[in-house]
C-alpha cells in the first residue's frame, strides 16, 4: 500500500484508510506500507 504526501491531510486520510481496512479485516493482506511527506507520520505511529 502506498500513501501520498500532502501534510496533515495525507496523514488523516491514511488513518481513515487503515481504520476502514482494519474494520473490514483487510489490513492483514497488506505486505508493505510506504508513504511520503505527511503520510509517513501515520506510518511511524502504526
Automatic annotation (TrEMBL):
PROSITE patterns named among the record's database cross-references: PLA2C (PS51210)
Keyword annotations: Hydrolase, Lipid degradation, Lipid metabolism
GO biological process assignments: glycerophospholipid catabolic process
Residue stretches making up the PLA2c domain: 1-46
GO molecular-function terms, A-Z: calcium ion binding; calcium-dependent phospholipase A2 activity; calcium-dependent phospholipid binding
GO cellular component: cytosol; nuclear envelope; nucleoplasm
The keyword Repeat is assigned to this record: no
Database matches in PANTHER family: CYTOSOLIC PHOSPHOLIPASE A2, CYTOSOLIC PHOSPHOLIPASE A2 GAMMA
Designated name of the protein: PLA2c domain-containing protein
High-level lineage: Eukaryota, Metazoa, Chordata, Craniata, Vertebrata
Amino acid at each position: 500500500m502506498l500513501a501520498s504526501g500532502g501534510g496533515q491531510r495525507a496523514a488523516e486520510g491514511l488513518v481513515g484508510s487503515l481504520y476502514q481496512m482494519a474494520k473490514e479485516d483487510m489490513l492483514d493482506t497488506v505486505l508493505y506500507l510506504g508513504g511520503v511527506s505527511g503520510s509517513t507520520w501515520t506510518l511511524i505511529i502504526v
